[in-house]
Amino acid sequence: MTLSFRRLPRRLVVVARKGGVGKTTTAAQLAMALAQIFGIEVLLVDQDPQANASARVGVAEGEAPRTLNDVYLWVLQHPEFGIHHAIHPTTWPGVSVVVAEEALKFRESEGDHLMDLRLRLAFERSAAELAERFGAVVIDTLPGTGALLRNAILGATDLLVVTDPEPDGLKGADRAIKAAQSIKATQHPDLNILGILVNGYDASLGEHQRCVADLVAAHGDLVWEPWVPHRADVLTARGLQVPVQRIKANGARDYVRKLNIHARRIGAALDLQENK
């Protein structure tokens, strides 16, 4: 099956092989940052059965009439069905979402070539609707490996790895990069592997400094600077289901300033023009 992505907005998939590194928060915050900095509408696709990204942007469980699981079930059965049928509004300005649900976990067992194509096909079916409304798409994924993650990568144009400055995080980042390179080499030659974003960095911890140095030694320019700091205000925003930009505190402002540097770098890769 040959699919054309020419009319579609570019799609950033955010991945991590290790849980607990702040991947979902980073994906949601990057969606918000892209919307603000570039003056566009951004679609956040929650592909993790835990549906944390959906909750993060203020969508309660059961609130959306259709989910990404519905997309995966229907896209092969109904020729007219695309991902735009499952788009739901959020409380975050400029950000809409396709929500996840726990039943998505059952798609993991459908690891055939048709599963690999479902998200890609759902995007292609909705090319006109997405191109008219959205400037970019951000896909949050579940940690680890499997059919859902491979499906998300094959549906994306660009890939960003998120990790933390811990020994297990380093191993996860290395495995994630190698997995992405393997998919690029064998299934998706146009995939743009952007780099590795280090999240939750504490400059006062020698262990964090050593881990980042090891990561840079292993992956060089793929490791993005600045390291995104650990800030309690990010947890506050998560609990309130609001963007960190709304928290009026020094820690929140420092986090947003550093994340926005990465958002601008991503925007350049996605061919976006900054909002003046």
TrEMBL record:
Domain AAA: 13-193
Listed PANTHER family: COBYRINIC ACID AC-DIAMIDE SYNTHASE, P-LOOP CONTAINING NUCLEOSIDE TRIPHOSPHATE HYDROLASE
Stated name of the protein: ParA family protein
Annotated TM spans: none
Gene3D superfamilies to which the protein is assigned, alphabetical: P-loop containing nucleotide triphosphate hydrolases (3.40.50.300)
Source taxonomy: Bacteria, Bacillati, Actinomycetota, Actinomycetes, Kitasatosporales
